[in-house]
Amino acid sequence: MKVKIVTLTLDYSLYPRHYLDEQTVNDYVHSLQAGAVFPPIIADKKSHRVVDGFTRYTAHLRLYGEGGEIEVDFRTYRNEGELLLDAIRLNTAHGQRISRHDMKRCVILCESLSLAENDMTFALNITADRLGELRAQIHNTRAGDRIAAKQATMHLIEKQLSAKQVEGVRRAGGCSQLFFINQVISFIETGILDGENDRVIERLQHLAGLLKERLKAAA
Q1: Has residue 152 been placed in a domain?
Q2: Whole-model pTM?
Q3: How far is residue 150's CA from residue 92's CA, in Å, rounded to a whole number?
Q4: Same domain assignment for residues 98 and 193
Q5: Quick one: which of 83, 102, 85, 136 has its CA closest to 19?
Q6: DSSP H helical ranges for 17-158
Q7: pLDDT in tens, 185-201
Q8: Tag placement on the chain: N or C end, fewer CB within 10 Å?
Q9: Domain carrying residue 186
């Protein structure tokens, strides 16, 4: 059935992914403008929360505004756990690929609701061994929260992270620290650094100061 877009709700606390990809949203908007028809989004019949289709919902809202309508398949869930498992299962089954980092978020969400291991493996379409690997790549924080580790932060996996470190993990890219360091070195050594960009020079000066302090402390 079709409903007004604004009657639906996006509950990011149950969203299997870490963030909504803006590029994909823009691609969907262009596709809608070209006449594409997307499958109905799936929503909880009782709360009208979107279970699957955050990107499609956002693209429709961006293109058609609050007065627009969208096709919805309403489903009934017995509890939050059942809703979450369906959201995870649907995200792993189609659409934008769910990343390994997103899978760790799914594990954290499932564990927060005390869901059974076999339910998690089924929803994520992974083995019990793979689930164990994902569980081993989750940070504990001093505040008692849990966040997914990234390749650049795996060396901290046994430590409880401070609030500042948590922010650093969230900002970190998906590659190793050595990759990013080598990128900066390559920009300078190959002469492709944008030396006329004041912001680039400002951040390099800041980096130089941090490196000086770090090397002094290590001496």
Answers
A1: no
A2: 0.88
A3: 20
A4: no
A5: 102
A6: 22-33, 54-64, 80-93, 100-112, 117-124, 128-135
A7: 999 999 999 999 999 99
A8: C
A9: 177-218
